[in-house]
Amino acid sequence: MAGSEVELLDFWASLFGMRVRIALAEKGVQYDYKEENLTNKSQLLLEMNPVHKKIPVLIHYGKPICESNIIVQYIDEVWQNKYPPLLPSDPYLKAQARFWADFVDKIYDAGRRILNTKGEEMEKAKTEFIDGLKVLEGQLGEKPYLTGESFGYADIAMVPLYCRFYALEMIGKMNIEKEYPKLIAWVKRCMERESVSKSLPDPHKVYEFLLERQKKIR
Amino acid sequence: MGKDDVKLLSMWASPFCMRVKVALAEKEVAYEEILENDLMGGKTELLIQSNPVHKQVPVLLHDDKPVVESTNILTYIDEVWPAKPLLPTCAYGKSRARFWADYIDRKVFPAGRNIWTAKEDGQVESARKEFLDILMYLDGTLGDKDYFNGDNFGFVDILLIGLTSWFPAFEKYGGFKVEDHYPKLAAWITRSYARKTVSESLTNPEKITNFVGMMRQMYGIE
């Protein structure tokens, strides 16, 4: 069988992988999806990402691109003739989009620590997480998407976290749905896009997976 | 046509500010530098207004519009002033440059900080090892090239060179020399410092090392 032009090494529950799946779907790019077993990484993954040995990795004509936000930018640049653009063309607006995508990474990190720690460390992570969501709620304001009228880079960076809201609420004992109405409205708006709804797994399945993983860590 | 009004909110010891200065110098963009106070003073109103989320330097103000986060600022500068590009022109080359930019940003300065804030010998040793392991990948990707960008000084070079002003401090408190472990990387530092844009933008490493010594005293490390 002929090699595929575009391959994605990924893991079904990875938020970072979801960003790439959304971007590829937005651009209508066909690709081969390869599910990695993270407890037994494939030789291909270790060769394609020798520095970090992590998914997602996009392989385009045999050449690897690593780090989810970098991959999304790459997709936008290579398939720039395919609508929609994921980043604005204006340099200032682009810088804004990149800023918010970087900010989202900090929220992700706090979310990860809520799930993997306990006691004082978890409480600290919760404070950071809540502070981050408050900033996003403010940033959304009356806008339909994080950086304006169009769905794009910053939204792609953030929306995968939605599939973990249920788990974070249960494990972290929080109520995201109630506290952040603009964020929830934004999530629903994003989920109306097929690229998003088909790239995110079921939140209950994610919760079960995270619980199992927690048992192994603790 | 109106002239660009470019201001840089910076702090003299910040390697992240130094990066932006090098980039502006490489692009021959005139700017006004507005110095923030160091540890002793509070943050200025202008800084807090321009970067309300993080309240940190560097902040580039282009016609009063703020761009923050040094790597983001460098990308912005490269896009607004496209002559003499800092990033490669092809998408794949750009992705590799961004990969190493991300690696440098996530790893180098925090590892260096672990060295000068370490209190016991055991901590210093493991911090030193971690730092050298991180440099190993950078040395590997530089290889036999003159610059990370190839023949021309570029994006990744600028991001790393700012941090090298702190290397003598890491070396002093870590008990090592980069040139003993990674001669190619050391040669790249020397080669880069020979550029006027670098030597005029980077703070004298001796001043940084003294500053680190002062912080160690403040934090009760020595």
Question: How many individual helices of chain A?
Answer: 11
Mean pLDDT figure of chain B: 95
How can the largest sheet of chain A be summarized?
4 strands, mixed
CATH architecture grouping of the largest domain in chain B: Up-down Bundle
Secondary structure tally, helices of chain B: 11
Return Rg of chain B in Å. 18 Å
Strand order of the largest sheet of chain A: 2-1-3-4
The chain-level structural class of chain B is: alpha+beta
Strand percentage of chain A lies at 5-15%
What does this structure look like?
The complex is a heterodimer of chains A (218) and B (222). By secondary structure, chain A is an alpha+beta fold. In chain A, 57% of the residues lie in helices and 8% in strands. In chain A, helix 7 (165-172) packs across helix 11. Chain B is an alpha+beta fold. In chain B, strand 1 (6-10), helix 1 (15-26) and strand 2 (32-35) form a beta-alpha-beta unit. In chain B, 40% of the residues are buried. The mean pLDDT of chain B is 95. Classes of the chains: A alpha+beta (218), B alpha+beta (222).
SSE arrangement:
The complex is a heterodimer of chains A (218) and B (222).
Chain A: E1 6-10, H1 15-26, E2 32-35, H2 43-48, E3 57-60, E4 63-66, H3 68-78, H4 91-116, H5 119-140, H6 153-158, H7 165-172, H8 176-179, H9 181-191, H10 194-197, H11 203-217
Helix pairs in contact in A: 1-3, 4-5, 5-9, 7-11
Chain B: E1 6-10, H1 15-26, E2 32-35, H2 45-50, E3 59-62, E4 65-68, H3 70-80, H4 91-116, H5 121-142, H6 155-163, H7 167-174, H8 178-181, H9 183-193, H10 196-199, H11 205-218
Parallel strand pairs in B: 1-2
Antiparallel strand pairs in B: 1-3, 3-4
Helix pairs in contact in B: 1-3, 1-6, 4-5, 4-6, 4-7, 7-11
